[in-house]
Amino acid sequence: MNTLFMPTKIGALEVRNRFVRSATFDAGADNWEVSKWQMELFSNLAEKGAGLIISGIFHVVQDVGIPPWQNLLTEDRFIPNLRRLVDSVHAHGSKLAVQLFNSGRTAYRRLSPLGIEALGPSAIKAGEDPYFEGGCRAMNEDEIWTIVRGFGEATRRAREAGCDSVQIHGAHAYLLAEFLSPQSNRRRDDWGGSLDNRLKLHREIYRAAREFAGPDFPIMIKLGVADGIPDGLELEEGLAAAEQLARLGYDAIEVSQGLRGTDYAQTEFKTAILKREQEAYFRDWTKQVKGRVNVTTIIMGGLRSFDLMEEIVAAGDADFVALCRPLIREPHLIAAWSGGDFRKPTCISCNKCFENVISGGRLRCMIAAEN
């Protein structure tokens, strides 16, 4: 059997193959609840061969202005529909992890029109940061601990719903990435300054989640190990952060980018991935993380060629491979590869799917829609 299709474990969790559907925001919730549309989407991904499916974002704290097409996991009333989603995935032999999330200062887009300041690690005035067009105020101690408790309670709800794991979102310019980056975290208290202090939020969230999860429930993290902008988090600090979090107990690290820049080239979703040498653009970062931790490592970022994914795993550069955009256009890809059809996806990485969900549309390939 091909290595990519061999059962592999994340902590105590056995996954049927090494293919992860990376967390993909789908804008498909119905009044903040898991919708029938999402159940069909996830069931199809499971039926077509994904070993582990990581959901799009689930907010852990109720906030003003969160649109109803985004998922919440802030109250027990959200558990029943999440349980139905889990059942739809388990029915086809796949596993489901819920990605737990707080937007941090990026919430300014929905809060500013309401006259409310977004919250971040440090106060930043609008126009002060060339890579962040909004503004925010610094979170106080109580607000930080509210977020920590929110991640813990959301983990409890995920486990009660039958989920197989949770993934803490620690990348892509959102709250945990903001705390980790010295560019956005300018605090002088226990939550800022040294790397150890800037990781305090990550540690406290893990402890809160583990309290509810128990010892056998995998807690993963998507970690931005370097920023996409000058004067941000450097890779060496990001690697040291990964080491600390692995020692703490996180069961898997999906390696990605932290703060974003102003164009796609400075983000985690780079465009026009048309040649083999443009693929796997986080391979080196992932390889370095893999060499410094003793927990499961997941690679993402422009993966397209089946033989390249084989090579990455065979070389020991990662344990799992994660796909996002190709599975939006062709959810049957993994099943096709399993059947011996190793052709490349037809996804051209145009990011129109991303732009569509940001504007309020549901997840779909816009090129397929145009055709």
Automatic annotation (TrEMBL):
SUPFAM superfamilies cross-referenced by the UniProt entry: FMN-linked oxidoreductases
InterPro entries per record: Aldolase_TIM, NADH_flavin_oxidoreductase, OxRdtase_FMN_N
CDD domains recorded: OYE_like_FMN_family (cd02803)
Keyword Ion transport (UniProt): no
Entry keyword set: Flavoprotein, Oxidoreductase
Gene Ontology MF terms in the entry: FMN binding; oxidoreductase activity
Pfam families: Oxidored_FMN (PF00724)
Residues in NADH:flavin oxidoreductase/NADH oxidase N-terminal domain copies: 4-334
Record's protein name: Putative NADH:flavin oxidoreductase/NADH oxidase
Organism: Uncultured Desulfatiglans sp
Lineage: Bacteria, Pseudomonadati, Thermodesulfobacteriota, Desulfobacteria, Desulfatiglandales
